Structure formats: structure tokens, C-alpha cells
Amino acid sequence: MTDSQLDYADYLKQRSWKGLLYRRYVLYPRLCRQLTGHVLDIGCGIGDMLAFRPDTEGVDVNPHTVALCRKRGLHAREMAPDRLPYADAAFDGAMMDNVLEHIAEPGPILGEVRRVLAPSGTFVCGVPGRRGFAADPDHKVFYDEGALRRTVETYGFTTRTVFHMPFRSSWLEARMSQYCVYGVFERA
């Protein structure tokens, strides 16, 4: 484990009570309406979505966050970068919430997402708006709505819908680091 991985796990644990309420009562219910069946949360962090949604497994490259999930009694596994430790078509749905922007070359992981999804499976991918992107020096690629669609569609998905959280607003995007764009895709 590297110091940066420990630091990142500690950073994730510092979520505010307002942020937790927002995720629990606004964001996660909306995301869960898009997902059915057995779901994989890629980049699950400290497991908030795993704790919220039944029948969800998590993977993360950070062994410390995986250990924190397991300590909470959640189903999480460590993954190597760009390699999901599951069989083909093992999941009905998958999600990446504020993960894709950390990856310089998205092709390998998006290919893996497609591989582990059942035919017509759902992939929900959320990326930060401009303020949120600028807030983290580890962010590598900025995705607006068009770039998110084009990138994910390039790797064998079709777009079902795109939505903004909490709602579409250029004013909020410039002022709220939690503002995000979410795409809901289907495995083609």
C-alpha cells in the first residue's frame, strides 16, 4: 500500500454529513432507478453505494478502501488497473461514479466493463462538472456530456439517457464541486 492510497482512503472518509445525506436521499435513489439485478460498482471507494444498494459488489484498485469495505461487511474485491476479476457477462449492471476522469486511457477499463456485463446490460457512468474536475489534481480527462457519450459509445455501448445532478445548470457546474453528469448506457 502506498502513502497516497492511504491518504485517498482517509480523504474519502472525510465526507460531510450534507454530502452523505445528498448521496443517500437524492443521488443514490436516482442512480438505482437505472440499475437492476446484480451490479458491479467499479471504483467503489469506501463502499457507500454497496451499503445502499442490495445485490451490489464493489472493486477498487486501492487495497485500503477495499479493506475498509470488508470491515463494514460489504462485498468488495481488489482489482488490478484495467482488469476486472470476474467472468464474462457476470453482471446485469455496472457503474463508475467519479472514476473515469482519473483514467488517462479509458479504452481498457471500458472494454472490461463491456466484457463483464450481460447482453443489454446497463452501465451508469458519472463524471464531475468543471468545478469538481478542477478540485482534484489526480483528474486526468475532463468529460462534458458530448465527450462522455462519444467515449463510452466508442467501446461498444449505446446511450439510453444523460442527466445532470442535481439538475442541469451551468451556474451550479461552475460553483458546486459535487455537480456531475451521468450517462446511462446499454451494452450493444
> Could you give the order of strands across the largest sheet?
3-2-1-4-5-7-6
Largest sheet: 7 strands, mixed
- Mean pLDDT across all residues, rounded? 94
Q: How do the helices and strands follow one another from N- to C-terminus?
A: HHEHEHEEHEHHEHE
Shape: globular
Total beta strands: 7
- The total count of helices amounts to 8
User: Rg from C-alpha positions?
Assistant: 15 Å
Summarize the structure.
By secondary structure, the protein is of the alpha/beta class.
Q: What's the topology here?
A:
Elements: H1 3-13, H2 17-32, E1 39-42, H3 48-52, E2 56-60, H4 63-71, E3 76-78, E4 91-97, H5 107-116, E5 117-128, H6 130-134, H7 145-154, E6 157-165, H8 170-175, E7 180-187
Parallel strand pairs: 1-2, 1-4, 2-3, 4-5
Antiparallel strand pairs: 5-7, 6-7
Your description of this structure?
The protein has 188 residues and is α/β, with parallel strands linked by helices. It has eight helices and seven strands, in the order ααβαβαββαβααβαβ. It has helices spanning 3-13, 17-32, 48-52, 63-71, 107-116, 130-134, 145-154, 170-175, and strands at 39-42, 56-60, 76-78, 91-97, 117-128, 157-165, 180-187. A seven-stranded mixed β-sheet has the order 3-2-1-4-5-7-6, sandwiched between helices. Strand 2 (56-60), helix 4 and strand 3 (76-78) form a beta-alpha-beta unit. The chain is globular. The model has no long low-confidence stretch (mean pLDDT 94).
